[in-house]
Write a structure and sequence with these properties.
By secondary structure, chain A is α+β, with helices and mostly antiparallel strands. The first copy, chain A, is 38% helix and 17% strand. The longest helix of chain A has 21 residues. Chain A is globular. The two termini of chain A are 32 Å apart.
Chain lengths: 173, 173
């Protein structure tokens, strides 16, 4: 929390507009409090009948990241990030597959907005889901858990947040 | 923008935690600038290959709201709200149905967080999607557009934002 760079906006509109996918990270680990705050934000997404179908596996071990990286052409992003969050749908809790997927999309967005507001870069990896059965087997996931996305997270390399707009307060004369 | 009540938090974490579904609204219309800001926030969601599959129809006419209300058991929410946003997926732009649905979930979450940060209540209505073909016909939507959600929006009745946490600045002695 003490590392938030001063170019990160604090209001929701600019956080939404300035968040970008970050694909290259510093090696610094993320404090566990920061990861928990991302997951807590994620967990406050709305879901149909409030079924909260999302589950999260947090991966920080290099050996596990290397295993995961083999299942996607974006493996370099996975290997670069200090933290990988595997986002699963709990099939046992699902009430409507398509609506549950939309809710999990909302949940991932919360996670990424919260991360960005703390100066942490993220990247939502979807291509790896094409091999979700292999990913699940590699992670020894329960059969009720389906991998629906992977989010990489870490402090961005210097150019990570390009494209961010200046706040109006800096533009108005 | 001049109507934001002073109990709305400004930081992302508390906006995420305090947002609630609002099902009863004041009759006041929403200024068009406010609706545009909700849609602009929505449009900055991430999507696979940046395909941006979301499309929005903004409905404010009572006659159209009454037509829509017939397709859901939550019709009273639709009739109460000054603004209804019908969220569609552009099938022609879709590259992967399930990933596109997740992106649209992220897009809706952006819309609702931005609304809340401006003191506007929203409700994500999913049940009406069970009759999406009838909704599309009623709205004369192009065949490329599939209704995936409906979002009601308006200034909440007094008890709209119950459950909101106090900011830490109010709790720390």
């Amino acid at each position: 929390m003490d590392k938030i760079p001063n170019n990160i906006p604090s209001d929701v509109f600019n956080v939404i507009l300035c968040r970008r996918s970050v694909r290259s990270y510093k090696k610094d680990p993320l404090p566990s409090g920061v990861i928990d705050k991302m997951l807590e934000a994620a967990s406050w997404a709305p879901s149909g009948l409030n079924n909260q179908p999302w589950r999260f596996m947090v991966i920080t071990q290099d050996s596990q990241k290397e295993s995961l990286a083999r299942f996607t052409k974006y493996g370099s992003v996975i290997k670069s990030a200090p933290v990988i969050i595997v986002v699963c749908m709990d099939i046992g809790e699902s009430y409507n597959r398509e609506k549950d997927l939309m809710s999990i999309g909302a949940c991932i967005q919360n996670m990424m907005l919260q991360a960005y507001s703390m100066g942490i870069g993220t990247c939502w990896l979807g291509e790896i889901v094409n091999k979700k059965e292999k990913v699940a087997a590699s992670l020894k996931l329960d059969s009720d858990l389906e991998v629906v996305a992977v989010v990489a997270a870490g402090y961005p390399q210097e150019k990570g947040f390009k494209g961010c707009r200046k706040p109006l307060t800096e533009l108005k004369l």
